[in-house]
Amino acid sequence: MAIKIEKKIKGYNVVKPEDKAAPAAAPAAPKEAPKAEVIQMHESLERPETLIGSTYKIKSPLFEHALYVTVNDIVLNAGTQHEQRRPFEIFINSKNMDHFQWIVALTRITSAVFRKGGDVTFMVEEMKAVFDPRGGYFKAGGVYMPSIVAEIGTVIEQHMKMIGLIHDPEMDESTRRLIAEKRAAYEAGAAKKNSDVSAAPAAAASSAADTGEPTNGFPPGATLCSKCNTKALVLMDGCQTCLNCGYSKCG
User: CA 145, CA 151: separation in Å to the nearest integer?
Assistant: First the structure.
């Protein structure tokens, strides 16, 4: 059957029989601009009028004046069996203004992470892994700190352990006994080598005072342990052994 075309032909297309059977395609919907997926970890908590916290003092040879780190906690589910303290904000104060900018930036970012919620304990390891290109220092007790940021991370770790957010694995009795035996054996061997046993403790104390190195009861000649960062590594029976954590290079 002939069909009369009354309009001007602008184009043409060959229609196959299978094309007639296919349903008409729906018009394509307009594409929306991509949006960032924001995940809210918990409900927003407004800052209470009063917070509880603790202040820690940091005395570093890198600073002329001491740093005072204050960590404030928010109490969740107060008065119930599920009551829990969580760090909410941190402040660092000092008379030294040389590093004021990065200290303020560090406190604001850390406080923002605390308020975000979730597992915030990762901040400890991140901060303890910061190394000062000028070199680290030893704090009281012979513990090595690679930077002032690392010591701030250690303070935060100490606070999280205090409120129960981080649980430090306790040393078992067998390990304690082994460390005590190794320490006694080392001290007995050192006393045997020294001809004047009575003068040995005084000489060791005098040597430690002259060098200004805190030994915290460990032998003055002890070196740094790579596991606990404490100057408690001594040579026993041809093997480096730590008198603080029990680590041994010989296994």
Answer: 6
Contact assessment for residue 141 and residue 216, using Cβ atoms and an 8 Å cutoff: yes
User: Does pTM top 0.85 for this prediction?
Assistant: no
Our count of domains for the chain comes to: 2
Establish if 150 belongs to a structural domain.
Answer: yes
From first to last of its 251 residues, what are the pLDDT tens digits of the chain? 677 777 777 777 777 777 666 655 555 566 665 554 444 445 567 888 889 999 999 988 878 889 999 999 998 888 888 888 899 999 999 988 777 899 999 999 999 999 888 889 999 999 999 998 888 888 877 788 999 999 999 999 999 999 988 887 666 677 677 777 777 777 777 676 665 545 445 444 444 444 444 445 677 767 777 777 777 777 776 777 787 777 777 76
Q: Show which of 162, 183, 206 is a domain's final residue.
A: 162
- Domain-terminating residue out of 162, 183, 198: 162
What distance in Å separates the CA atoms of residue 62 and residue 132, rounded to the nearest whole number? 10
Structural domain span for residue 205:
173-242
d(CA 141, CA 158): 15
